[in-house]
Every structure is written in structure tokens, then in C-alpha cells.
Amino acid sequence: MKLGILQCGHAPDPVAQIHGDFPLMFKRLFDRPDFSYEYWDVEHMDFPKGPEDADAWLLTGSKHGAYEDHPFIEPLEELIRDIHASGRRMLGICFGHQIIAKALGGTVEKYKGGWALGRQSYDIAPLGRIHLNAWHQDQVTQRPEGAEVLGGNDFCENAALVYDDSILTIQPHPELRPNIISAYLDARADDPTYPAELLEQARAENDKPTDDRRFADLMAAFLEHGREALT
Questions:
Q1: Is residue 199, in this structure, part of any structural domain at all?
Q2: Tell me, what DSSP letter sits at residue 211?
Q3: Could you tell me if 159 and 215 are in contact, meaning their C-beta atoms sit under 8 angstroms apart?
Q4: What's the total number of domains in the chain?
């Protein structure tokens, strides 16, 4: 399977220098010899010709808000709708989760409850209670028509969404394993954007295990089998 990665943003330089940028993180996360990859830097207006350029698609995280006015937002939303109409399967991670929801009629907002940083727990069907790293303040606050909640928690109700047989999206970052989150925490240690107490809590929790591999296996199964993989 050829997985097209739509790179909606880039890892911070100090993180990328150690761990690589988002496409490499996802290649390592899936670790599937039967997958091939091609990526497009859509943040900088590098777009595929259309949905037919890959068998399935993945949209990455980004520092941008899905509701912000950037040149790549409108053509990305159009591409999302085209991929959906084509029947090809699609995954969305963090910003990818949000922009897919917005492109299909949902609402994304800066959450009044603040940030989620580091290890969080989610109830995700069919996996049960799992832990994944998060790094976000924006959330999907209104689901598009046809989107069903696959899982969430008290802080983020719409943390995982599934759309019929073709789209699976999640708010946290399965690709940000504990060693990568550690690099994020170092890179953002003095950034006043993030509450110091949440950074400290994330660092204190970072020695606990996360379920990146379990969710990666679920995503891969969804790309291959669709909704059947979620039962």
C-alpha cells in the first residue's frame, strides 16, 4: 500500500534534528514492510495532483489552527473532500484530525479549558483505555454530519472520530513516543505559550508507557479493512 503523507506542519528544529520530521516519525511508527510512502509539504503549497496519487492518505499535525487564514488551508480542505469522495481511506492526526472535521462541515476552536500536554488517557473502541501523548489546545467542538465518536476523555470529547468506512482521525499524537515528547519538552521549556505546571506534569509522566504501537496497528488495519477493523 502506498500511503500519501500530507505534511501540514513541521516538527520544531531541535526535535527534527534528533528524531526527524513527521513523515519519518510515521514511517517508524507503522514499521510496515508492505507500506510505501510519499509525502507532500502542503504547508508550503506542495500538493499532489489528486487522490489517485496514493492508495490511502495521512494528514499530520501542525502549529497552525485549522480556522486560521493560511494559503494552504483552502486547497487542503478541497483535497480532503476529493479524497473522501474518491473512497480512498484517510487518517488525520491532531491538526489533521481537526482540518478533516472542518473540511467536512465541523467546527474547530481554541478550547477554553486550555492545553493537553504529554501523556493522556483515552477510552478508544475497540482498544479500551489507552494512553497516548498529546500536544494541543484546539479541539473539534462540533462534529461534521456522519462523524461518529470512537473515543475521548473528559477533557476532549471528540478525541477520535470515524467517518463511515473511509476516515479515522485522532486528536493526540501516536507518533510522538516518550523520547520524542521529551525532546518537545526540552525545546519548549522556556516558551510562555505553555503553562509551566503542565510542562512539569508532562515531564513527570513521561516515564510511563504509552500505547503508540497498539494504535498504530489499529490505524494500519483501518487502512486495509476499513470499519471492519474497529469491531
A1: no
A2: -
A3: no
A4: 1
Give residue-wise pLDDT tens across range 110-147: 999 999 999 999 999 999 999 999 999 999 999 999 99
The residue among 25, 185, 6, 8 whose CA lies nearest residue 95 is 8
Reported as a pLDDT band with limits 50, 70 and 90, residue 97 is very high
pTM over 0.85: yes
Residues 218, 127 contacting (CB under 8 angstroms): yes
Is residue 149 within a helix (H) or strand (E), and if so which, with residue range? strand 147-152
Q: Is residue 206 part of a domain?
A: no
Give me the mean pLDDT over the 146-153 stretch: 97
**Strand (E) or helix (H) holding 43:** none
From CA 41, how far away is CA 38, in angstroms rounded?
10
Is there a contact between 89 and 57 (Cβ–Cβ < 8 Å)?
yes
C-alpha 124/C-alpha 116 separation (Å) is: 17
Number of helices (H) and strands (E) in the chain: give both, helices first.
7, 11
- Give a yes or no: residue 157 inside a domain: yes
Sequence-distant (6+) residues with CB within 8 A of 143 are 101, 106, 149, 158, 161
| CB-CB contact of 170 with 159 (8 Å) | yes
Instruction: Read off the CATH number of the domain in which 83 is found.
Output: 3.40.50.880
3-state helix, strand, coil in the chain (%, to 5): 35, 25, 35
